[in-house]
Amino acid sequence: MAKVIRAGEAGLSRRLEIPRFRHQSTFATGCYSARVVKTASTQWLAPGARAPDFALPDTEGRLRRPADLRGEHGLVVAFICNHCPFVKHIRSGLAEFGRDYAARGLGLVAINSNDAASHPDDAPGTMAAERRSAGYTFPYLHDESQAVAQAYRAACTPDFFVFDRDLRLAYRGQFDDSRPGLDLPVTGADLRAACDALIAGRPVGAAQKPSLGCNIKWKPGLEPAWFGG
Length: 229
What we know:
The protein is α+β, with helices and mostly antiparallel strands. Helices cover about 20% and strands about 20% of the residues.
């Protein structure tokens, strides 16, 4: 059983109105369910907020925590899953990002918080194979209780949070402008720009576009306030 340290309410900014849209037929995958929406990240975790602590198992069963995962310059926390078309769209780019920035002293960890009962493609037993297939060199953790996604106010897959060396939030937003069905290359430009500034000791720009993807698949009764039907 994973040990999860629940975060308090400190560090939340005011509630933002988040646009939500029904999936279009272009995204015909296992993301569909009775309550599935294309969802923007909440950006509720305020700049400067400390990373909520956790202890979650990786694909080898080891418990991992933010303080142990951060690099010299900080830590990127990405909420992803195996099956989401938005994650699949950036999959190779995310793997490349992880290799590039690990070499520059930045930690990266991915967390899968989806309900495995409703979405068995995201079950813990599938994650090690996905990590190998995708070429992820960073840890891939399972948030079975969904408490960590709740603490981070995560909303979608993918959803990105960048913390500095003191584990204070510097960026929360998109990987880049590319989306499934759009004729735009996957570059990771937004996330890379934020991390480049962090590593160089420059302020990360305040203009941070929300990420967009499939909603996190919440367990019945655990849907957070920011998840709309």
